[in-house]
């Protein structure tokens, strides 16, 4: 059963504890609010201000699991705080670990400070959970996919459009890398895991995947320098740095170019173009 008073108090407490800079928002010169405003939290949680405000006022319908997950992420809750939120709202908390999409507050804080840099947070299966605006400008909105297509590796073998942003000479290596990485995760997580389900789907629908899977290659790691082919700015040579959250099996990927290089200049152009050509 939902604890409306407890839920409202908890939400107000966590909202007032957050500052704009904690979530990547400008503070402004006339701010008098303690913590974040309700409309700011609602925007971070991808819901209407009215819906969020009713929760803080002990009104409205019982939030769904999906709504609670959005609130937990928008308020940068820890896993313990997320689980507490779900229980206050009368739901069992989601699973933790590799199958969880909940991003740790620390990883979110780092991402929030990278708005001018291409960056994304991904799961161990290559499912994009969050991107910076420049990340969307570089690769398109990869959070929009559902089902198996959420996985970059799955799209690589099933959707020709997934390959267009990578230099053709890199395609054979990337095919081997995705198959190798998936095999490692299947071994780690077991035959009943989501990774094993993805492998079964790919074995059933992709001749290329069957060929590279049969080689049983292990330990093929991504190259630090990646070659992209952007539809507007052309070839880009970017260094990828990875920050790993082992507790959640999530990684923050940050893409940068050598200062003064041609790719560096193209990133500056891309920051102006934004996502207007990738909608």
From TrEMBL:
What Pfam family is a match, any one? HTH_31
An example of a GO molecular function for this protein is: DNA binding
Q: What sequence ranges are listed for the domain HTH cro/C1-type?
A: 35-82
Q: Which InterPro entries match?
A: Cro/C1-type_HTH (IPR001387), Lambda_DNA-bd_dom_sf (IPR010982), MLTR_LBD (IPR041413)
| Family annotation (SUPFAM superfamilies) | lambda repressor-like DNA-binding domains (SSF47413)
The family database entries (PROSITE patterns) matched by this protein are listed as: HTH_CROC1
Please report the name of this protein according to its UniProt entry. Answer: Transcriptional regulator with XRE-family HTH domain
User: What high-level taxonomic lineage is stated for the organism?
Assistant: Bacteria, Bacillati, Actinomycetota, Actinomycetes, Streptosporangiales
